[in-house]
Amino acid sequence: RYTEVKVLDTYSGSEWFHTGSDGAMVLRAPVEGVTTGGARYARSELRELTDGANAAWTLDKGGYLTVAMQVDELPTKLDGTPAKIVIGQIHGGDHQLVRLYYEKGSIYWVNGRNEAQAVDAVYQFRDSAGNTPKVDLNESFTYSMEVKGHSLTLSLLADGKTYTSSITIGPGWDDNLFYFKAGLYLGTNEATSTGDGQVSIFGLDVTHDGSRPVLDSGGTTPTIPTVPTIPTPVTPPVLTPPVIAPTIISDLGVVATLAGTSGADIFSVSQKATVVNAGAGIDTVNSSVSWVMSSGVEKLVLTGTAATCGTGTAANDTILGSEAANIVKGNSGDDRLEGKGGADTIKGGSGADHIDGGTANDLLFGDSGADKLLGGVGNDRLTGGSDADVLTGGEGADVFIFTSVSQSRAGTADLITDFASGTDKIDLSAIDANTQLLGNQTFIWGGAGAGHLSVRDGHLIADVNGDGRMDVDIDLGSIFGLTSADVLL
Q: Which keywords has UniProt assigned to this entry (predicted)?
């Protein structure tokens, strides 16, 4: 499970958060690290808090963040190129007003999509001559973000030059409450990369009184121009060295039998009946149609815009959905299943599976095995199945479904990591609350005895047969204040 630390001045000794030999705050994260609710990738970062809770400032109040730092290390993607990371954010509601990226020596930022803006907008920093910055690994720089009403300005000081980028904040953000984030949020995981990311922070300051403080270390905070220049959104540059793509073995639009090599092969499949004899190596199939993985294929990626189905093998498979509404089935084995975009249905099957719905309203089923289910963004429905599962709804109004007492009982209780009272629901309506009576009885909130539901020591418990033992046991983690309105009885 992930760790959230709110008292930093007494926290030390972590591999992922420690003080470096130069006095810097070092933040590190591995691609295979655990993720927080709603996140696909591991992170080690700082979040702005007020009285122990997320800060919640408005556009009218505004705010200023400045950070002096450097990027020390990046994960390596499977094609051999360095992965990108997020080094700063302005987070608002379910969206990010700003995501600041470091990618191949380039620093740029994204104004995230929201209900009123369908796509992300990408912006570059430029100096007075129109040049963009180039920042190497282990090279220190200072960035700042300032919000004043609907004015948003970012500045970057690198190589003794000041680079700026400013926009007018568009519709859809007025009702959001914001907080700053700084540090390291990976843009990849173990399905696509290897290694760790690491950044060092030399100084950081946040204000909401209109001041622009100068950091104690890491250089002078960049001066923000009085009349900012509004740039045109651009695509981040692809910098040298060039990437040499691997050879793709394709069925060329007709049913075929494709043979792999002893290395890591990529196959392109457009016909359901196409057969892939993968051979040795870690092999991937990109399929635009519904396809059942064959032995020797380790990874299946569903492509295109059609709603397709991907089915795994008895081995440990990785299946990634497309932006469409996919059906993903892991079968047996310890599988990694990701829906990505679209309203997906994902079934883990037997084995200890990692299931990530991605965006949209997804249906997730763990089945047997100790599974990890992550709803992601959207109003998701999560059913863990037997064994001790970890359920994380993520963003949105999620429902955690229990259809049998065998799904979560003493000794194999499921853990709900991020239940939001008043937004999420726990659905017990399919369970007979009192098996001593005919029919399907509804649970009674509070009290003791058969059919009564109560919270004890952070667990939601119930006895369904009157023997005085817990037949239903759901670990609520750090959830407090659960009420009868949160449970579908």
A: Hydrolase, Repeat, Secreted
pLDDT in tens, 224-270: 333 334 344 444 444 434 444 456 899 999 999 999 988 888 999 99
Tokens 């992550």 appear where?
Answer: 374
* List of residues 6+ apart from 239 with CB closer than 8 A: 104, 105, 106
What CATH number is given to the structural domain containing 164? 2.60.120.200
Are the CB atoms for 385 and 369 separated by under 8 Å? yes
Q: Which domain holds residue 439?
A: 248-488
Query: What does each C-alpha distance from 209 to 51, 56, 148, 444 come to in angstroms?
Result: 18, 15, 11, 51
- In sequence order, the 6+-apart residues with CB closer than 8 A to the CB of 226 are none
12-21, 95-104, 160-169, 341-350: range with lowest mean pLDDT = 12-21
One-letter amino acid at 280 equals A
Residues 151 and 271 in one domain: no
Asked if residue 54 belongs to a domain, the reply is yes
The answer to whether residues 241 and 83 touch, using CB atoms and an 8 Å cutoff, is no
Of the candidates 151, 178, 174, 201, the residue with the CA atom closest to the CA atom of residue 49: 178
- Amino acid of residue 145: M
**CATH code of 368's domain:** 2.150.10
- Residue labelled with tokens 């294929």: 297
Task: Tell me the per-residue pLDDT of 443-460, one tens digit each, with 9 for 90 and over.
Answer: 999 999 999 999 998 899
